[in-house]
Amino acid sequence: MIRITTLNGGTMTRQKFVENLLKRADVKTAARGEAFAPANIALCKYWGKRDAELNLPVNSSLSISLGKLGTRTVVKFAKSADRIFLNGKHAPKAFAARLSAYLDLFRADGQFFEVRTKNNIPTAAGLASSASGFAALIKALDQLMGWGFNPRELSMLARLGSGSATRSLYDGFAIWNAGQRADGMDSYAEPLDAPWDSLRVGILEVSKARKKTGSTEGMNRTRETSELYEAWPAQADCDYDELRTAIVAQDFPMLGKTAENNALAMHATMMAAWPPLCYWKPQSVSLMHKVWAAREEGLELYFTMDAGPNLKLLFLQENQAAVKKLFPKVQVVIPFSS
Ligand code: 2P0
């Protein structure tokens, strides 16, 4: 079995990373900050950290944002303690603790925050709500604190909350450069300016239940114990290049095939971990077979899956009616709608 004893290749702490960035900013605080960030679905997945402290990934990843599906967050200053609300109610303890720990990176002594965050996607069901959550939070915080960071800097700060949040700063396609530096300053996301109006993402929800193994634990376990993980970085690099080519050429079969294969390869590395990690439910597998059968019949339909049981279908507008007929419960997202 592969044993990797240290995940933190560098010596820099998150606090130091934030201090380095904050040095360059003016500080004129506002009364409140408010921002929206979209959820994103990776077509080339981020799976594995080269530095767990700074959330630096092993491989570069590429995603598509989900338009109006995501998180809206309002941040204000609070008097004597953080006050965290999720979807209109006091947030669960674990959620509030994770946000407060993130806010610790930015607060001055005795400074507290009120955070009101609303998701219009299920929280923690593999639909990437931590991605839109941390991206919306850092954008709102940037307004409140008056930092004036650019999207690239914000993407690096979002990264400290959750890796996939790095990509949620943008609409449309986004790429997260893995980078090579130990200080993480070259590990940021940027938009890929390539609108694709006819592209559709279909969400097939299998379960809303909170997953037993979070992504951080899942990817660390995979990296430490799965023999198949050795093959992952090379496949991810190759898929990343192919997806960029497919997007520029608007070659849908190439996009769909590469994304589906990338997702299945990622899940294969997890299943070869110990203890085994399988986010799929029986219904997930049956939906995959349904997609494959439809494709054999000539329908241009592909899927991708994240660290959860739900499927995200990929298809073109011209096949929307056929997809809806096959999957009446599908929730269709138009990533490039204005
Ligand atoms: C992705 N996922 O690229 C991959 C595919 C899930 C499967 O990024 O540890 O919640 O907070 O950085 O961002 C989910 O992982 O993990 C994820 P952390 P995160 O979208």
Plain-language structure description:
- The radius of gyration is 20 Å and the shape is globular.
- It has helices at residues 14-22, 93-104, 129-145, 151-161, 215-225, 232-249, 252-271, 282-296, 320-326, and strands spanning 32-44, 49-51, 56-57, 61-78, 83-86, 89-90, 112-119, 173-176, 189-192, 199-204, 302-304, 311-316, 331-333.
- A hairpin with a 6-residue loop joins β11 and β12.
- The strands form three sheets. Strands 1, 4, 5, 6, 7, 8 and 9 form a seven-stranded mixed β-sheet that branches. Strands 11-12-10-13 form a four-stranded antiparallel β-sheet. A two-stranded antiparallel sheet has the order 2-3.
- It has 338 residues and is α+β, with helices and mostly antiparallel strands.
- It folds into two domains: 14-191, Ribosomal Protein S5, domain 2 (2-Layer Sandwich), CATH 3.30.230; 199-333, GHMP kinase, C-terminal domain (Alpha-Beta Plaits), CATH 3.30.70.890.
- α3 packs across α4.
- Ligand 2P0 binds at residues 42, 45-47, 55, 61, 130, 162-164, 215-216, 306-307.
Please give a handful of descriptors for the protein shown.
Ribosomal Protein S5, domain 2; Alpha-Beta Plaits; globular; 13 strands; disordered N terminus; alpha+beta; 338 residues; 22% strand; 9 helices; binds ligand 2P0
